[in-house]
Amino acid sequence: MAFNPKDRFFHKAKADGYLARSAYKLDEMQKKFKLFRSGDLVLDLGAAPGAWSQVALKLLGPKGLVVGLDLKPVEFTAANAKFYQMDAFNFDSEILEGRAVDCLLSDMMANTTGFRDVDQARSFDLCGQVLNIAEKYLKTGGNCVLKIFEGPDAKKIDERFRTLFQESKRYKPEAVRKGSIEIYIVGLRKKAL
Ligand SMILES: C[S@@+](CC[C@H](N)C(=O)[O-])C[C@H]1O[C@@H](n2cnc3c(N)ncnc32)[C@H](O)[C@@H]1O
Fold first, then answer.
1. Atom nearest to 129 CA in ligand 1
2. Domain total for the chain?
3. DSSP structure string for 7-69
C-alpha cells in the first residue's frame, strides 16, 4: 500500500484537536497499560509538537504536571505543562524542580543520515540515554514508554528494560504506519534499585 501522509488518523487528529496523529499511539498505550493517572508527573522526551503531552494532560487533571523537552521549541501551552528546548543528551534535572517522575515517555527519533549503521547507532544511543534518565529520575513503581526501531540493538534495550522493570513488553499501536519498523517498549513498575 502506498504511503499516505493524510490517512484516517491524520483526519481524526484534526477533528479531535490534536497537534499530530501520534496522539493515538499514546492514547492506545495508555488505555492498555494505564501508564499514568491523575496527579502524576509525566516527563515527555521529544515532546514537539505536543500531541503526547495533550493526551497526558487530559488525564492528569489540575494536580498533574507534564514536563516536556525537545530539540525544537514546543509552541503548545497549557496551565500544567512546562516545555524546555533541550537536548536529551544534556538532560538537566533542574527542570524537574526536585520532583520525582511517575511516568517517562520517549517518542524521540534521532535525525537520520541515510546511512543505516550510523542511524541505528544514533537511535541506540538515544534509547540508552532515556534508560539512564529512567534509572535516575523515575520513581520506584513508575512506568516508561520508549520508541525504538526494530533491529540488531533492540534486544539489548529489551534486556535493560527487563533489569529495570518488573514487566516489560514490546507494543505496536494501530496508528504506527504500515511497514514502519518503529515499535515501543513499555516498562511497567520500575523495580526498587
Ligand atoms: C516523532 S516526534 C515526537 C512527537 C510527539 N510525541 C508528539 O506527539 O507531538 C520526535 C521528536 O524527537 C525530538 N528529538 C530527537 N532527538 C532528540 C534529542 N536528542 N533531544 C530532544 N528531542 C529530540 C525531535 O526534535 C522530534 O520533535
1. 19
2. 1
3. -HHHHHHHHHT-SSTTHHHHHHHHHHH----TT-EEEEET-TT-HHHHHHHHHH-TT-EEEEE
Please check whether residue 1 lies inside any domain of the structure. Answer: no
Question: In sequence order, what are the residues at sequence separation of 6 or more whose Cβ sits closer than 8 angstroms to the Cβ of residue 114?
Answer: none
In terms of residue numbers, what domain contains 127?
8-190
Is any atom of ligand 1 closer than 6 Å to the C-beta of 129?
Answer: no
108-136 residue pLDDT tens: 988 888 887 888 888 899 999 999 999 99
- Mutating to test ligand 1, I would choose from 9, 75, 90, 109 the residue with most ligand atoms within 8 A of its C-beta, which is 109
Note whether residue 2 is domain-resident: no
- Asked, for residue 102, whether it belongs to a domain, the answer is yes
Q: What is the pTM of this model?
A: 0.95
List the CATH number of the domain containing 101: 3.40.50.150
Handedness of CA 66, 11, 185, 70 (dihedral sign): negative
Closest atom of ligand 1 to 25 CA is: 8
Ligand 1 contact via 22 beta carbon (within 6 Å):
yes
Is the C-beta atom of 75 inside 6 A of ligand 1?
A: no
